[in-house]
Design brief:
With 308 residues, this protein is mostly beta strands. Helix content is 0%, strand content 18%. Strands 1-3-5-7-9-11-13-15-17-19-21-23-25-27 form a 14-stranded parallel β-sheet, with no helix packed on it. The protein has a 14-stranded parallel β-sheet with strand order 2-4-6-8-10-12-14-16-18-20-22-24-26-28, with no helix packed on it.
């Protein structure tokens, strides 16, 4: 009925409570414990709490259906916070920074997202569940691997506000209601969304991306948008029946804007100038013409379709 409390520090063996249904959490306010705080019970009403820092082994809770999350407010933990249960009502939280391994939650149907507000994590935040009501969020920067969400039908997008990520933001789900967003710049690999029927476009506001923004889906209600400049490869949309055109407002693109679909209701638009290769539209039955408002293009605007 009451919590296990250990206010000491540098304990060589962890605080252990094998009971279940404790009304108050296991608490260890010490620091530098060599072994983790462990609670193998289930249905605890309050979370396992470890306010120390530099623990050599993670806080572990193998129970399920805990009403409050596992919390570790320390920093520089050498191993991640782990919760193998499922259907936790609140997320796994790690507010530290420079964790060497990511925060991991293998459950499914969590009502709130996995959150890691630290920066420079060597591996990404991972959530393999599906149908999470809020997105996977990583506000850090310079992560060496991308934010990954393999679920489907997430109600909010995968968000990575960092910059200079070495690998793209990837979302293999489909029918996401909000777009995949990457506001960083100088990403070495493009933003990729292989789903279809996204209600909002794939957006990349960065510049100098070395590979194009790619959307292989079809029937997107809003266009693929790339507001950057000096992209070395074109913006590509292989879908068809897009209701709004593919838009590239940058300038000095080395390769043309390409739209291989057909029956687009609005034209392909390139407002930049000095493109080295022309704007290409291979579809047919476009209701509005291909428009290029730039100047000094080295090759003409080409439209191989018919019945404009």
């Amino acid at each position: 009925m009451f919590p296990v409390i250990d206010t000491g520090y540098n304990n060589l063996v962890p605080v252990i409570d094998t009971g279940y249904n404790n009304l108050v959490p296991v608490i260890d306010t010490g620091y530098n414990n060599l072994v983790p705080v462990t609670d193998t019970g289930y249905n605890n009403l309050i979370p396992v709490i470890d306010t120390g820092y530099n623990n050599l082994v993670p806080v572990v809770d193998t129970g399920y259906n805990n009403s409050v999350q596992v919390v570790d407010t320390g920093y520089n933990n050498s191993i991640q916070v782990v919760d193998t249960g499922y259907n936790n009502s609140v997320q796994v939280i790690d507010t530290g920074y420079n964790n060497s391994v990511p925060v991991v939650d293998t459950g499914y149907n969590n009502s709130v997202q996995v959150v890691d507000t630290g920066y420079n994590n060597s591996i990404q935040g991972v959530d393999t569940g599906y149908n999470n009501s809020v997105q996977v969020v990583d506000t850090g920067y310079n992560n060496s691997i991308q934010v990954v969400d393999t679920g489907s039908n997430n109600s909010v997008q995968v968000v990575d506000t960092g910059y200079n990520n070495s690998v793209p933001v990837g979302d293999t789900g489909y029918n996401n209601s909000v777009p995949v967003v990457d506001t960083g710049y100088n990403n070495s690999v493009p933003v990729v969304d292989t789903g279809y029927n996204n209600s909002v476009p794939v957006v990349d506001t960065g510049y100098n991306n070395s590979v194009p923004v790619v959307d292989t889906g079809y029937n997107n209600s809003v266009p693929v948008v790339d507001t950057g400049y000096n992209n070395s490869v074109p913006v590509v949309d292989t879908g068809y029946n897009n209701s709004v055109p593919v838009v590239d407002t940058g300038y000095n693109n080395l390769v043309p804007v390409v739209d291989t679909g057909y029956n687009n209701s609005v034209q392909v638009v390139d407002t930049g100038y000095n493109n080295s290769v022309q704007v290409v539209e291979k579809g047919y039955n476009n209701s509005v013409p291909v428009a290029d408002t730039g100047y000094n293009n080295s090759v003409p605007v080409a439209d191989t379709g018919y019945r404009h």
